[in-house]
Design a protein that fits this description.
The complex is a heterodimer of chains A (about 110) and B (about 375).
Chain A: E1 8-12, E2 25-31, E3 38-46, E4 50-54, E5 61-67, E6 84-85, E7 89-90, E8 98-102
Chain B: E1 15-20, H1 27-31, H2 34-37, E2 42-45, E3 51-54, E4 61-63, H3 70-77, H4 83-92, E5 97-101, H5 114-132, E6 139-141, E7 143-144, H6 150-163, E8 168-171, H7 185-194, E9 198-201, H8 216-225, H9 230-238, H10 241-244, E10 250-253, H11 260-273, H12 286-293, E11 294-298, H13 302-306, H14 308-311, E12 316-318, H15 332-339, H16 345-360, H17 371-375
Parallel strand pairs in B: 1-5, 5-6, 7-8, 8-9, 9-10, 10-11, 11-12
Antiparallel strand pairs in B: 2-3, 3-4
Classes of the chains: A mainly beta (about 110), B alpha/beta (about 375).
Amino acid sequence: MSAGRPETLRLDWGETEKAPADRKRWLGAWLVSQEGEEGDYFYDGPGGRQTTHRVPPEAIGFRLRWYPSENEVSVNLELGPMASVVDDYFFAEQAGPELTLAVLELLPEQR
Amino acid sequence: MSTLSAIPMQDYFVVSADCHVLEPPDLWEKRIEAKFRHRIPRLTVDANGRKWLVVEGQEKKRIRDFTLSGEDLERAKGGSFDLERRQQDLTRDGINAEVIYPNRGLLMWTSPDPAMQTAMCRVWNDWAIEVFSPTQKYSLPTAAIAPQDVDAAVQEVQRVAKLGYKTVFLPVTVPDQPYNLTLYDPLWAAIQETGIPMSFHVGTGKDPRTASGNGGAIINYVVHALSTAIDPVVHLCASGVLERFPSLKFVTVEAGIGWLAWTLWVMDEGFHKHHFWIAPKLPMPPSEYFRRQGYATFQDDPVGLETRKWIGIDRLLWGDDYPHHEGTWPRSQEAIDRTMGDLTESERRQVLGLNAAQLYGFELPAVQPDAEESRA
C-alpha cells in the first residue's frame, strides 16, 4: 500500500429510512489524477446501503455523483435530471488501512 | 376562410418534425471515454446550498428550485425513452410520426474542444439508434455531428449512416468557424453522399442562457435561441454551398418561421443591390436556394403562417416540440385550430405531415385520412 491510500473504503450511503424509490442514485468513481481524471467506477446503485470497496493502486481519491430518486421530477432546469457532483475526496496523507465515511455528510447542504 | 378549423388532426397524416427525448440521467457518465468523464455537464452545490449548472465552455449558472403543476408538470415528466409510454404520448397529441432530438444532449457542442464535442455526440448517436431502431418507421432519431473538426465529422457522418440513421443535425453556429467557409466542403459532400437531410436545432452552438436579470428568460428565448437560426440559412444560401451541393437538404428546427420570409427577402435585396461586392457570383438569388433545399419547423407561429406565400408552403414543417414548455404538446389540436384556420386543406396536409414525410422518408398510410369524407 502506498502512503496516503487506504486498502479499503467503506461507505454508508444513508437514506435507509426512505422507500427505495425515494433514495438518491449514486455513481462512485476512483480519481486517478489531481486534475480530476477518473478511473473505473466502483459503485453504481441506490442509497440505503453500506458497501465496501478495495481501493486500486492508481486511486488517489474518489468522486461521487448522485441523481434524483425515481420518484423525484426534475423541474429546476429544462435539461432533465442530471448528475450532481460532490466535491472530490482525496485520500489524506496519513490514511489508515480502512477509511469509513457517511456519504451524505459529504454533501455541502448536509454540513 | 376558417371553415377548416374544426377538422381533427386524425384526418391528417401528422408528423412532428421536432420532438425531444430525455436521455437517461447517467447516459454520458456511463458511456463516454473515461478521459472525458470529468468534463461532462453537471450540477454542483456550494457551501451555501446553492445549485449551479457547470458546463464546459459556458459560464456557471445558478439553478433555482421551483414547483410545477398540471400540464407544466406533465411536460416536465414527458419525453420518455420508454417506447410504449412515448407512443401513448404521441397518440394523445394526434401525432403519427416524429423526428427526435436530444434534450440534455443539446449541450454536446458547448466545449471549445472538438474532441470533447465528438465524444459527446458519439455517445448520443450510439444510444439513440439502439433505443429507437425498433420504432424508426415512425420515431426517427437524429444523429449529432460535431463539425468543428471536419475530418472527424465526416467519419461520424459515415459511421451514423451505417448505423441506420436517416438524418443528422449540427449546431446552429460554430464559434469562429462559420458555415460559409469552404473547409466544410468535405462535410457537405459526405452528408450529400448519404442522401439524408441535415438540420440545425436552436439552442446549440451558442449559449441560449446568456442573459440574466430583468427579462432574462425572454431575452434568452428570443435573442440567444430562436433568432440564431438565421445564421445557417444565410451562410448556406448566400455563400455558394448550396450551389456546390445541390442535393443537400437542410432544416432549421424550433426557430419558428416568422423571421424566414423577411430573411429570404433581404438576402435577395443584398444579392441585387450589393452585386458589386458579392462573391462568388451565384446564378440564382439566395432565396431560391432555400426554396430548393431548405425547410423550417415551427410549432405555434400564426405570424409566420401569414407569410407562407413568401416562403413556399412546401418548405414548412410543423412540430409539437414534445415535451418542451414552449411546444404545443399535449394541446396541439388547439394550436392548429388557432393558427391554421386560414390554410387550405391541401396546405394543412403539407405542413402537418406530407412535407416531412417526403423529406425524411416516412411511409404514408396506404389510404390517407380524408378530411372531406370524414366530415360528410
